[in-house]
Amino acid sequence: MDPSRIRNFSIIAHIDHGKSTLADRLLEKTATLTHKQMQEQVLDSMDLERERGITIKAHAVRMNYQASDGEIYQFNLIDTPGHVDFTYEVSRSLAACEGAVLVVDATQGVEAQTVSNLLLAMNNDLTIIPVLNKIDMPAAQVDSVKQQVLDLLGGDEDEIISISAKAGMGIDDVLEAVVERIPPPAGRRESPLRALIFDSLYDQYRGVICFIRVVDGTVRKGQKVCFFSTGVTYDVEEVGTLVLDRVATPELQAGEVGYLTANIKELDEAGVGDTIMDAGEQEVEPLPGYQPLKAMVFSGIYPVNPEDYEMLRDALERLKLNDAAFSYEPETSPALGFGFRCGFLGLLHMEIIQERLDREYQVEIITTIPNVRYEVVKKTGEVIEVENPSLLPPTVEIDQVREPILSVQILVPSDYIGAVMKICNDRRGLYLNTEYLDGSRAILSFELPLSEVVIDFYDRLKSSTRGYASFDYEHKEMRAGPLAKLDILINGEPLDALSAIIHRDNAQVWGRKFCLKLKELIPRQMFEVIIQGAMGNKIIAREVVRPFRKNVIAKCYGGDITRKRKLLEKQKEGKRRAKQFGKVEIPQEAFLAALKMED
Could you tell me which of 75, 69, 284, 133 has the C-alpha nearest to residue 196? Predict the structure, then answer.
């Protein structure tokens, strides 16, 4: 098709503002799907996406639309995830577009991730089409939300399109705006090949399938191509377009969106954001913005039943095939046995993986406290990365410990600014500034340690603001601080699964709370169970679970006192031996307790 009649665009929005519903209506209006094929959130292929109302993976679809000028236009819609954990996927999807439809819920207004995704789109120089959704709802505040959008974007009020995606109102106006406002692709078909990978997945029969936007040149079956980041060369087996399913075509030209297969065996070899080039071309400039995905949150995953270890390993291997951002490696724990150390993009990503393990593979698991990646500078000058607190070197060898710091924006009604400030200050937050969107809403900017965000921060933020606050973050830097490892000891034995790296100022309070929580959760034994919190060789907290006691002198109804003492000494010796050989079972609730320390 003539490049002047191609439109590549994305839909960006905060969670639950109607992005997937609008995509459904566009598919209906362009007759891409028949009425029988149609279902809600048709681009969300996973059950989890439909149930939670979120998009987890990026999707692309081609539509043909006959505009009011009589011409037929080719629309390539790239649906993107809305959650902050998947920001990199969003940025690569936006890099494959020339425009973006910004959807704002008329009942909720501009939210934190609306602002974040808008800034991502602006950084990619995209044309923005503002759309006000859910205008037919009783709670819709059309005029005030329009003003919020104008304050954010500028421009004229007439440029904002009012729609109801669920009822199908205003969809034609959105399609016409895509034709009129979004520019056609600027790539040249006679130039050497440059194609951007904006997503990839693993197929057990065909290997890795790359979803690509051809920026310059042409890619066709049989062509030799090279991946910029790895330098590996492949022969193209098939190219095609995406109309929900994959449809093979002879070639893809500059400006078009589609897929490519080339017998690629490893998902890591086709990283999101990488550039595909002609194998023979040496002077081609790669497309900007590529960076390898790096896990931010780490947690240990262990099978409840040790016999399920092989099943868990197979399940993680399959999840890894279709999720390049997920990583895992085997580890062992004296308390929990054999398991895996897993890396995630964020808390939602971790929750999704755990839910899929339960639903798709029926594996019962125990998860340890989520923690983050630290940089440890030794006194010798060597810098090492530590993902597991139990692997932290001895204190005498450490010069400094650096932790990841986030730049956080929290959008909140003005009434709750004080509550949000208190939560952030309690979590070692550094206040930067407050920016008012209007008289009733403000964006608070903070710097927060990631380790303070991964445990219970989002829950506290929502409960303190009655669900009205929304927050967005990005990684800023690694910063040194007074951090140390807190060990939890059960009868003198360290329980590595409950180790944590925390700020020294919070260590004593955190240690006491956690020991008290464990005292409630660990069942009484026939022997005494001593729970201790330790920093290095210093015990900072201690609790005791008292043993069951049998009254062995009940049968003595008189006589010499030495007989009673003899029986008591015998009982004491038995308890000492039981303590020496007995094993304390730590219930799963103990590991979850760390996530709810504020309760």
Answer: 284
